[in-house]
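TEACHING EXERCISE
Course module: macromolecular assemblies
Task: Read the component lines below, then compare them to the predicted structure of the full complex.
Student: A.B.
Group: 4
Components provided:
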Amino acid sequence: MKLLFSCIILLVSILLELFSGSWGFALVVSAYVIFYLCRLYSVGIGFLAAMLAGFAMDAAYGREESIMPLVLLAPLAVAYYFRKEPFYGALETAMPGMLIGLMSSLLAFVCSFDEDYLQLIFSLIFNAAAGCVMMPVLVLALDAFLNMLNLRGITSPLLAKLTPFSSHLDRYKANESR
Amino acid sequence: MAKKGKKSDSLLIYPAMAAVILLLTFAGYQVLRRGAGRLFGDFFYPYLAANTIAKNTVSDQTLLLLDKFELAAKLEALLERNRQLTAQTADTASLMRENDELRTLLKLPPGEKWKHVIAEIILRDPLLWQMHFTVNTGSDAGVVPGAAVMTATVDGRLLFIGVVDKVTTHTAQVMTVLNPALKMSARVGSRDAVGILNDSSKHLAAGMIPIGYLPVNEEYISTEIVVTSGFEKNIPCGIKIGELATVEATNTPFSNSLYLTGTVKAAAQLNSIRFVVIAKRDEVK
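Instructor-supplied answer key:
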């Protein structure tokens, strides 16, 4: 069930990205979904999904060069960086979302050999803001859907009730280590 | 010692296996890439077409929000335009008939005849926006790779956009003139000066195309019209590509260059195109 769910969300994210691409803006929905899959399974599975999604999107766009598999390394890097960070609520994923937006814009700029630096700045601002908003919304929706299927998502709201702010837990851990 | 040997073996085997897997993945990717374009083109087609249908439905519903008098006025204007176009078509048909008769009298081979297919853009690449796009017509409508893709202006003139690159059953990928990979001949003005578009991949301002191999012994004027030469099998002759913007200045007596290079300003506005016209060669038996 979890695998089917993962395949469906990956396909839907690819379609959403293709639709948004046709409107002229590169909204990296698949990157957010790959980050989610990295948290749900592992970075290795995320890598497989990233390569598959990247390959499919490049083939659909008819690109001669491989751009998307490289762009989709951004969520993998972010997922690896945050691999030990627990997410108590969807809002805490805003920071990884912003990082994914920034990194994927930068990688897309480099991979497409573009030289329009002004466009890059706008793209960075847009994708950082979009990541900040979209990532928590996506996590909230996908976790809710997984909970409906009696499966566990990537956030732990129960733990959040016990420790409303993650910083409290960090402080507690720091005190304990002393 | 034996334990140490085993450990060193596994240290060698794992990276070797990883390297082999990576190599196989890369090789498979390179081999399957061309075929995958066809497969994914057709796989995504129903979803992309659904998106287009939804977009058109919203557009139609928005049109229905207009006042009925306004709609009636628009309909009247459209009917008037249709009548004008019908008259123009009748004129063109008589000219074509006359041309055929003259060719027969002069014992010349029959002229090239073209059919046109209308297609809608269903997918555009946000990263390479001006370089290529996908349309909703494929080999089922007789579109072939290399076919000319054009757009029509408000006054009914055709402007050259690019050529069909890859074709699937329901879709076709179009490579535009702004794509450095599209190298084709173009005629400058009405003379015999023929150059090659995108002869170099130097970065130019948006909407500009490099042109090279222009004959040295010709006088070039900026804003001169650049049209298709007709040398390519599936591209009709005389379709406007753009206007000559610059040609490198040479002092012929002291220059040993055999050709000139320059830039062409593309006529078609690729940012706002929605429908395109694809030329099909009408094979006369």
